[in-house]
Amino acid sequence: DAGVIQSPRHEVTEMGQEVTLRCKPISGHDYLFWYRQTMMRGLELLIYFNNNVPIDDSGMPEDRFSAKMPNASFSTLKIQPSEPRDSAVYFCASSWSMGGARTEAFFGQGTRLTVV
Amino acid sequence: AQKVTQAQTEISVVEKEDVTLDCVYETRDTTYYLFWYKQPPSGELVFLIRRNSFDEQNEISGRYSWNFQKSTSSFNFTITASQVVDSAVYFCALRINNQGGKLIFGQGTELSVKP
Q: Do A48 and B102 count as a contact with CB atoms less than 8 A apart?
């Protein structure tokens, strides 16, 4: 398996523009997570899905952020409009349930977002 | 509240030295999982180990070993005979069983191994 695939790897955009980050989880995994990494706040969970359904979005910073998972093999994280403080590395991760226990999360390589 | 503390922000060692990365966690839950991840300079997060709260047996994998002690709420990570390729940021994380898949990360320890 190719692992969790994120695109783009790097994104530079101007303030006010819409940004869409994409993620393809590992095939067969039923959990998908979006994390954000910044120097100030470290790694923090934004939202996660189970079987394509959002379970906990309490980490989404504000209404400018939205996430979707239209099917088991694709998810998007959208920021509209983007602001300089959204600059961070965004990670997607996936895991699966095995006998009721969840395995460890496997992370993608991340998308480095810079908003200027 | 749940929390993970990695008190060592940066550690610098010379190749072949042993080094221990500390991790202290806080939770009132009895069922939880602990993890270590490695983030090399290339930026990805690489899974190293998972431990559940009912298994205090220490684990060794090559040059890596982990010491889990519930009495002190610690899950420390030791690299024996460190190598330059071990240079990375290492994260300890906590997952509470009844809180879905949310990982609570420590702030990370940046390990620099010099030749």
A: yes
